[in-house]
Design brief:
This protein has 398 residues and is α/β, with parallel strands linked by helices. Helix content is 31%, strand content 21%. The chain is built from 13 helices and 15 strands. Strands 1, 2, 3, 4, 5, 14 and 15 form a 7-stranded mixed sheet that branches. Strands 6-7-8-9 form a 4-stranded parallel sheet, sandwiched between helices. α4 packs parallel to α5. It is globular and about 75 Å long.
Amino acid sequence: MPYFKADYIYPISQAPIKNGVIHLSDNGEVLNVFTQEQINAIEPSQIQCFRGIITPGFVNAHCHLELSHLYQQMPEQTGLVGFIKQLQQIRNRSNEEIEEATILWQQKMYDAGIVAVGDICNGPNSLKAKHKQLLHYHNFIELFSFNPAKANESLQYGLALLNQFNQLAIDKTKFTSSINPHAPYSTSLELIKLIADFNGNKHLPLFIHNQECQAELNMYKNATGDFIDMLHSFGIDTTHWKKQPIGSMLAVANLLNQNTKMLWVHNTYSTAHDIAEVMQLIPNSYFCLCPNANLYIENKLPDFNIFLNLKDSVCLGTDSLASNHQLSIIAEMQTIQQNAAIEFDTLIKWATLNGAKALGFDAQLGSIEKGKKPGLNLLDFKNSALIFDKETKLQKLI
């Protein structure tokens, strides 16, 4: 049964412990966490000592693993409308190619210290990778349909896919699934309401891509703009659409049950007012930031400062390899620190416990506490300020 010691242990659930020691069982369960003063009774030869900081494993709260075959295939900074049009042209490949890519990049996430993923699913192509049970997954079965008359048809498709995921022989404490709307510009308000009603009191997390670009704001507040034009180019009728002066985020929030656990993803154009209003309507909201994808697609970042008073409600994601150069939570934290004065202690909570709570895995993951199996990452900083940069090294301990 191993003991791990480092310059600092970051349990997340309590203050950092200088020269602390973690005692694990052979299967990775935390048996105890000791301060420097409490380790005298432990035989020194039993303790593995490391330079750096030990944290829990990371949580990638927003990913599209099934798009991993598009690595280095998509042009950058096309804007979201251009990105969607390009994606529709090239995303379809053979099942074998897609499955091989999901297996490869699942392993890369594991090696990069990620222990759980909120994964967006449009089909069953990621199931072969997930059957290996390498990571915890909450599968967000994603639905599209802007035509209100087809809302129920879309829901029935989602239910059939959800059934495929629920029937997979995987430990259900590590593998959960729910039905979700893709985005306010691609999912009718009628379909969002059907999804909200179906979820009811199941207490499973829901998600939606939120306020990722200016075109979404224009569509809701003015009923004009690039998204309306895009829908027309796809042959989709928009005559039913009426402007929603309150904006997309509040329009969606008003359709949800108040006790919904909701994951709002991207939030690039969200304002402090939007977020405050949403927290009043849906108190169990989480805000997932995917900064490298925002730069890849729109070359714009959220205002990180508006999330600083929501330290328990912010988590991190990578989005997909169609919109990112890697699936690395370290890289996301590095980008945030390059663009905002956010302390390490805050970021590491966003990267661990908050994501675990958002996905419903916090009983097992997210903090170094007795009885949990959170995985352990060792971070070695070349600087004393705990700033993530290209010199920061990560070693997955367990």
